[in-house]
Amino acid sequence: MTLKPVILSGMQPTGQLHLGNYEGALKNWVSLQDNYRMFLCIVDWHALTSDFNDTAPMQERIFQTAVDYLAAGLDPDKCSIFIQSEIKEHAELHLLLSMIVPIPWLERVPAYKEKAEALDLDSYGFLGYPLLQAADILIYKADAVPVGKDQVPHIELTREVARRFNSLYGKVFPEPEALLTQFPAIPGTDGRKMSKSYGNDIRLADTEEETTKKIKKMVTDPKKIYKGDPGRPEICPVYALHQVYSTNSEEIRIGCSTGALGCVDCKMQLAASLNAALRPLREKRKELVNNKKYVINILKKGADEARQVAGATMDEVRRAMHLMREDV
């Protein structure tokens, strides 16, 4: 029997996921689950690097993230969905790897520099975030990690860590590849990258009325003030979403460019297209929210599957590092 290549990926439990999460990761995961052995975690420890002072909502956020995973089409019979902190081996491997990784390796990760300045974070845990991510990947001996271009440095760090461990203690870990994914740019309602922290997101859990209300408030081409004014769809976030969710995006482009289509009508057409596209997901989501026991059982099943693999890897690691006592 040919074994499927292994993939590891995950998201922080921010609560309810948005269109950017859906287009940037979830849809891709669903497309990969038939051809890969997938471990998909909800990385609650990673969330603590920035949300350490607000942990009361954590369990509800984890549940909502799991619901979005399943509503998007992930099949628990094809992939293991679990909570990071329920697999203690992640933390043990992170600790052991922290003994062999030089601090400058962590400081040079681009995302660390950017977020440290933007969020004013200087904790030990935040510095070690990329190494914990490496442990998440290596403990399942992942062959690949689906990422966008901005995450490639994280995968390269993981490869370096694997090489260093293997050179010190013998071959245990494969070097994972970055599985580059192409996905459409999803702008937020204010034109910036869609992000919950910006308050510009459209969530998978939003009602159709909430979605329409958000779209009505979206920024458009500042030079297109009245219907009849020619617009520049190439700079308009509304049109960017039309390209993803509307079947008549070319018609929209022409109407905007010539001035025949006003912004109000353009937004209402987008709201109709987006709500229609998300309707099956949202209906599934409602069913899952009302069946919490089912979702929790899937997380338990996924944790059991992940723990079995992670435990076997840690036995290899301890043996390689001479941390496992050999019984006489």
Plain-language structure description:
The protein is mainly α and 328 residues long. The chain has 2 domains: 6-186 and 292-320, 3-Layer(aba) Sandwich (Rossmann fold); 206-286, Tyrosyl-Transfer RNA Synthetase (Orthogonal Bundle). It has 14 helices and 5 strands. It has helices at 19-32, 44-51, 58-71, 89-98, 103-107, 110-119, 124-127, 129-138, 152-169, 208-216, 237-245, 249-258, 263-289, 292-320; strands at 6-11, 37-42, 79-83, 144-147, 177-180. The strands form 2 sheets. It has a 3-stranded parallel β-sheet. The chain has a two-stranded parallel ribbon with strand order 4-5. The longest helix is centred in the last third of the chain and has 29 residues, at 292-320. The relative contact order is 0.14.
Topology at a glance:
Elements: E1 6-11, H1 19-32, E2 37-42, H2 44-51, H3 58-71, E3 79-83, H4 89-98, H5 103-107, H6 110-119, H7 124-127, H8 129-138, E4 144-147, H9 152-169, E5 177-180, H10 208-216, H11 237-245, H12 249-258, H13 263-289, H14 292-320
Parallel strand pairs: 1-2, 2-3, 4-5
Helix pairs in contact: 3-13, 3-14, 4-8, 4-14, 8-9, 10-13, 11-12, 11-13
